[in-house]
Specification:
The complex is a heterodimer of chains A (70) and B (265). Chain A has 70 residues and is mainly β. Helices cover 11% and strands 40% of the residues of chain A. The longest helix of chain A is centred in the middle third of the chain and has 8 residues. Chain B has 9 helices and 10 strands. Classes of the chains: A mainly beta (70), B alpha/beta (265). Chain A: This is Sulfur carrier protein ThiS.
C-alpha cells in the first residue's frame, strides 16, 4: 500500500502519494513547470529545486501563473 | 522623420532597458486571448502588464497568456492588482519574479472600491521592501508631486501617477499636477490609469510624460484592435507635439493671413 500525505494546493486539500517532490506534484496536476511559480509555506520554491524539494504532510502550496491584467 | 514616426532615435529607458514604443498596454479584460494578442500587436507596445493569479487546478491545460503573448517578444511587467496591503504586494511580486525570471515590476497598492485610489502609505512600505529585495519598481501613485519625488528618491525606476481612477476612462483630470511631476522628475513619468480615448493619451504625452499605460481604454472599446491602433497614433502624436513645442496661447485673435498689405480695395 502506498502512503499518502495531505497537502493544501491553492486553498484545496489534496491527498498525494508520498514521497513526492514539487516536480512530482506539478506533473500530477499536469502543469508545465516553466509557466508557473510555486510558493511552499510562504517561501518561494526556486524552479531549479522543484525536483529536489520534498513535500511534507500539511504543506501549503500556492501555484500561480501570469494572466491578463492592467 | 516621416509621417507619424518620431524617429528611431526617440527612445526612452527604464531600469536599463531601452524602448521605442511609449505605450504600455494591459492584457486584461479582452474577449479572449486571441483578441488580446491582436490588440497588443496593433498597439505596437513593447511592454505589457500582466497579473499573477492561482492556476486553475481543475483545468490545467487551459490556454495560458504566454501562449498568445510571447514573453520573449514583449517585456512582461507583472502587477500587484488586487493587493490592498504591502505584504500581499511583495508576496505577489516575489512569485512573479520566479515565474518570469526578471525583476522589473509594477507596484500598485490600492485603497478600497469604489475609487481604488492608491494607498500611498502601503505603497511606500511595499516599495521599500521590494527595493531592498532587488526589484526594479515602477510605481503607481497619486498625482502628488511630493509623493512622486519621495518614491524616486527611494530608488523607484519610474513613477506612474493616475490620470483618473482605474478603468474610469475619465481622461487626464489633473494636468497641472502631472505636469508638475514631469518637471521635477529624474526618472520616467507615465500616466497610468484614467485614459479613455485617444485624445487622453495625446494629452498625457503633450504634458511631457515619457509613456502612457492603459488597458480598459483599448479592451473595452467597441473595436479593441482599432482602438489599439488609435492609441499608438495618439501617443506618437502627443510625443511629437511635445517635442515640437506648442504655440503660445493668446486671448485675442492673431490671424495668419496678412491683414495690412495687398488687400483689394
Amino acid at each position: 500500500m502506498t502512503a499518502t500525505i495531505a497537502i493544501t494546493v491553492n486553498g484545496e486539500r489534496r491527498e498525494i502519494p508520498a514521497p513526492a517532490t514539487v516536480a512530482d506534484l506539478l506533473a500530477r496536476i499536469g502543469l508545465d513547470p516553466r509557466k508557473v511559480a510555486v510558493e511552499r509555506n510562504l517561501e518561494i520554491v526556486p524552479r531549479s529545486t522543484y525536483a529536489t524539494t520534498a513535500l511534507a504532510a500539511g504543506d501549503r502550496l500556492e501555484i500561480v501563473h501570469f494572466i491578463g491584467g492592467g | 522623420m516621416d509621417g507619424l514616426h518620431t524617429g528611431a532615435d526617440d527612445t526612452w529607458e527604464v531600469a536599463g532597458r531601452r524602448f521605442r514604443s511609449r505605450l504600455i498596454v494591459g492584457t486584461g479584460r479582452y474577449k479572449d486571448l486571441e483578441e488580446t494578442a491582436r490588440a497588443i500587436e496593433a498597439s505596437g507596445a513593447e511592454i505589457v502588464t500582466v497579473a499573477v493569479r492561482r492556476v486553475n487546478l481543475s483545468d490545467p491545460k487551459a490556454p495560458m497568456l504566454q501562449d498568445y503573448v510571447d514573453p520573449k517578444r514583449y517585456t512582461y511587467l507583472p502587477n500587484t492588482a488586487g493587493c490592498h496591503t504591502a505584504e500581499e504586494a511583495v508576496r505577489t511580486l516575489r512569485l512573479a519574479r520566479e515565474a518570469g525570471g526578471w525583476n522589473l515590476v509594477k507596484l500598485e497598492v490600492l485603497g478600497p472600491p469604489p475609487l481604488l485610489y492608491p494607498d500611498m502609505r502601503a505603497t511606500f512600505e511595499a516599495a521599500e521592501a521590494l527595493l531592498k529585495d532587488g526589484f526594479q519598481v515602477m510605481v503607481y501613485c497619486n498625482d502628488d508631486p511630493i509623493a512622486a519625488k519621495r518614491l524616486e528618491e527611494m530608488g523607484c525606476c519610474a513613477v506612474m501617477p493616475l490620470g483618473a481612477p482605474i478603468g474610469s476612462g475619465l481622461g487626464i483630470q489633473n494636468p497641472v499636477m502631472i505636469r508638475a511631476i514631469v518637471e521635477q522628475a529624474k526618472v520616467p513619468v507615465l500616466v497610468d490609469a484614467g485614459v479613455g480615448t485617444a485624445s487622453d493619451a495625446t494629452v498625457a504625452m503633450e504634458l511631457g510624460c515619457d509613456a502612457v499605460l492603459m488597458n480598459s481604454a483599448i479592451a473595452h472599446a467597441r473595436d479593441p484592435v482599432r482602438m489599439a491602433r488609435a492609441m499608438k497614433a495618439a501617443v506618437e502624436a502627443g510625443r511629437l507635439a511635445y517635442l515640437a513645442g506648442r504655440m503660445p496661447k493668446k486671448y485675442a485673435a492673431d490671424p495668419s493671413s496678412p491683414l495690412t498689405e495687398g488687400l483689394i480695395r
